[in-house]
Amino acid sequence: MARKFGIIGHGFMGHEHETMLTNFDGIEVTAISDIDPEQLRDVPEGIKAYQNASDLIRDPEVEVVLIAANNNQHKKLVIEAAEAGKQVLCEKPIALCLEDLDEMEAACKKAGVSFTVHQQRRFDVDFRTAKNVFDSGELGDLYVVKSGLYGFNGNMHDWHVFMDQGGGMLYDWGVHLIDQMLWMIPGKVTQVFANLRNVINKEVDDYFHIMLRFDSGLVAEIELGTYYLTDKPHHFERHWFLGGNKGSAYIDGFFPEGKIVHTDGLLKNVGGQRTMTAAGPTRSFGPPPEGKLILKDLPLADTKHSDYFVNYLKALDGKEDFLVKIPETRRVLRLMDAVRESAKTGKSVDFE
Ligand SMILES: NC(=O)c1ccc[n+]([C@@H]2O[C@H](COP(=O)([O-])OP(=O)(O)OC[C@H]3O[C@@H](n4cnc5c(N)ncnc54)[C@H](O)[C@@H]3O)[C@@H](O)[C@H]2O)c1
Q: How many C-beta neighbours within 10 Å does residue 173 have?
């Protein structure tokens, strides 16, 4: 029997969900809601359209309520859906603050319904390729993992420019980028240092640079720039760098290109070679001598966003745990608070 989904919010992400889930084995989209009647014009035949989300939530046919409305709507819609006894699946960010998340979780627990968040970027091919390299251990002891995402137009679209709607890049991609790091790297984050800026937007953040120090000594660095102008090819995409004492890996692009890079011996065995540069001679920062670097292909991941719903359905049937657990989302929100505090004070924040 297919699980019957109702989608609240038929904007960008609501349409993505509708397209993916109407063709998904084990799911039937039975209803869609949007407060804006324009967004209901293209609801496919056979799917009920409601302008009022409460009507969708009360519809006895709807079993799972998938919330894809503006960020500031998540709390009230999650609580209303839980109180109506529906399974609750919410878009990220799960909540705007920890207090809201506590209330939402309590409502779901009280009603005895499931509650998780749509963080399908755990299945991004670039991220999972980086995670494959990380998990393989072949880079030795890692000292740094960098994740970067860069765009050029700076202005965020629609409600994302308004603070009271839950706008800004930290609530947008920030949630995914932080979640990816925390899911990949084990151990405690002992300290957080961050720069969070409104570069060209008045109300909301559009640039951040976050450093997370783990108890292992590894530092994870996450940088996102929306107004990051350059004409370098391949720039407006995704970048990873993993550095360890036995090698490095670089991973560029959403469908990633890159290599794992080793050397044929430890650096102390490499004779100092004098290279003349425009900045004078150097023995440490010239190009590597011929044959010193050993390149390996990346262990490309074979993942797709629809994998998220494969897990979701199994978890609803009690066959697996939900991939994204509420304590993990709470940790991301807490970390975002630490980012804001560090950016405000200019100091690092003790974390875990
Ligand atoms: N997981 C992802 O990769 C991803 C990507 C994009 C957006 N999102 C999330 O999806 C959500 C929607 O973002 P978007 O970019 O699609 O925004 P959007 O503006 O394109 O769509 C939101 C829609 O919700 C409707 N809406 C607002 N309040 C409502 C209510 N109370 N009842 C019914 N409809 C309501 C709006 O009219 C709008 O059509 C956000 O939480 C966002 O963070 C997630």
A: 17
Question: Ligand 1 centroid to 180 CA: how many Å?
Answer: 22
Residue 252 tokens, joined? 């560029």
Q: What digits encode the pLDDT tens for the residues 164-213?
A: 999 999 999 999 999 999 999 999 999 999 999 999 998 999 999 999 99
Which residue segments constitute the domains of the chain, with CATH numbers given? Answer: 3-118 (3.40.50.720), 122-256+298-304+334-350 (3.30.360.10)
pTM of the full structure? 0.96
**What is the band of 149 on the pLDDT scale with cuts at 50, 70, 90?**
very high
Q: In whole angstroms, give the CA distance from residue 165 to residue 96.
A: 9
Give distance in angstroms: CA of 97 to centre of ligand 1.
Answer: 18
Cβ–Cβ under 8 Å, residues 185 and 146: no
- What confidence score (pLDDT) does residue 234 get? 63
Tell me, in angstroms, the distance from the centre of ligand 1 to residue 153's CA: 21
Per the prediction, the chain carries an average pLDDT of 94
Which residue lies with its CA nearest to atom 5 of ligand 1?
13
- Using most ligand atoms within 8 A of CB, pick from 7, 10, 13, 89 the residue to mutate for ligand 1: 13
Q: SS3 for 82? A: helix
- Residue positions counted in the chain: 352
Helices (H), 115-232: 125-136, 175-184
- Written as one letter, the residue type at 267 is L
Taking only the tens place, the pLDDT of each residue in 223-272 is 999 998 888 766 668 899 999 999 999 999 998 999 999 987 765 555 66
Structure token digits, residue 215: 């108890």
Cα–Cα distance measured from residue 95 to residue 164, given in angstroms and rounded to the nearest whole number: 13
**Residue matched to tokens 């989904």:** 5
